[in-house]
Amino acid sequence: MTNEELIAHMKDFAQRCSSISKLHRIGASVRGVPLYVLEISDRPGVEEAEPNFKYIANMHGTEPGGRQLLLTFAEWLCANWKSEARAKRVVQDMHMWLMPTMNPDGYKDKTYENAAGVNLNRDFPDPINSPSMDASRGEQPETRAVMDWVLSRQWVASANMHEGAFVVNYPFDGTASGWDAYNATQDDATFRHVSKVYAKRNPRIRNSTEFKDGITNGAGWYVIYGGMQDWNYVRAGCFEVTLELWDVKMGAPLQTLFNHNLDSMLAYATTTTFGGLRGFVRQRGSSKPLDARITVSGSKFVARTNPRFGNFYRPLAPGNYTVRVAKKDGSAASTHKVTVPESGAGAVLSVTFP
User: Fold this and answer.
1) Does domain 3-274 have CATH number 3.40.190.80?
2) Is the peptide bond before 280 cis (omega within 30 degrees of 0)?
3) In this predicted model, what pLDDT tens digit does every residue of 183-205 receive, in sequence order?
4) Catalytic center at which residues (predicted)?
5) Of the listed 63, 139, 163, 244, which one is catalytic?
6) Which residue in 43, 74, 97, 255 has the fewest CB atoms around it within 10 Å?
7) Closest Cα partner for 6 from 54, 81, 64?
8) Where are the domains of the chain?
9) The CATH homologous superfamily of the domain defined by 277-353
10) Tens digit of pLDDT for each residue in 281-339?
């Protein structure tokens, strides 16, 4: 499928499935090819008290499997959301965003890099080399488009689709020393948990002989700097993993890819958004939504409420936690003991302040 055919297909889908989808242009490639994302929800284009989740594919031009996989996933949701429980939950309870290609120029040229010869997964601000994580404005147009789009709203989680192995890769990707070595985030248990949720439902990843349980810490595999998943986690407050979905680049058969990944894609999305901690922070008496910050003992990661609705989502592995909820201005705070169950149902915490 050419870039022109992909865009035409996305536009056609947004018309055929208009009740649950909206097409958004977020920027353009080096050569001016539009970069589109599909929003899928029962109220597309409307901000709601629901989590945002995203899948991005074809960041590398020679890794095209995710292009077709995301289009097929969208078609499956459109065809099944009224009758299939998992599809219904995705459409009714969250906003699912799908970006089939981040690097259309590289895809056309059959090159790993973009048209300027840049590896887009080395082009993001990095927590080691750029601790502020702010854009330098020297990033490639594809990178800038994704960064601006991501920072335009709040996200709970995401995944980035690649080819070259069978594994789920989680942060951090880099080390201060430059040597390959496990570099855990303070949410390592959660990243391992959600990575296993994906891996164990994909037979090729689950049965990997190279990676235990089909998962790996990025830096423990090989060090990179400027990766998208680390930027998402540190700068955008979004739990992202990298999915290596086929061992041979440009060799993934679509039907097999879809069959192997559908259950994983659904489970990963719902586990990250609903299987951890979620809830509301409101004003006592009036139920007015409050702008608040949520932290968990042992981690510096800060989850935020949507100030318009007061809702929040915080991925967590099953276990017992001490959670601190504080108003943004610091005028009130409270501490809570929370248990996230093994069932995947998640924990719900509703907090009120004067």
Assistant:
1) no
2) no
3) 999 999 999 999 999 999 999 99
4) 244
5) 244
6) 255
7) 64
8) 3-274, 277-353
9) Carboxypeptidase-like, regulatory domain (2.60.40.1120)
10) 999 999 999 999 999 999 999 999 999 999 999 999 999 999 999 999 999 999 999 99
**Cβ–Cβ < 8 Å for 204, 260:** yes
- The widest CA-to-CA distance across the chain, in whole angstroms, is 60
Q: Which residue has the tokens 């901690």?
A: 277
Q: Which of 279, 274, 278 is nearest to 345 (CA)?
A: 274
Amino acid at 112: Y
**Residue found by looking up tokens 């809830």 in the block:** 279
The 3-state secondary structure of the chain reads CCHHHHHHHHHHHHHHCCCCEEEEEEEECCCCCEEEEEEECCCCCCCCCCCEEEEECCCCCCCCHHHHHHHHHHHHHHHHCCCCHHHHHHHHHCEEEEECCCCHHHHHHCCCCCCCCCCHHHCCCCCCCCCCCCCCCCCCHHHHHHHHHHCCCCCCEEEEEECCEEEEEECCCCCCCCCCCCCCCCCHHHHHHHHHHHHCCCHHHHCCCCCHHHEEEHHHHCCCCCCHHHHHHHCCCCEEEEEEEECCCCCCCHHHHHHHHHHHHHHHHHHHHHCCEEEEEEECCCCCECCEEEEECCCCCCEECCCCCCEEEECCCCEEEEEEEEECCCCCEEEEEEEECCCCCCEEEEEEEC
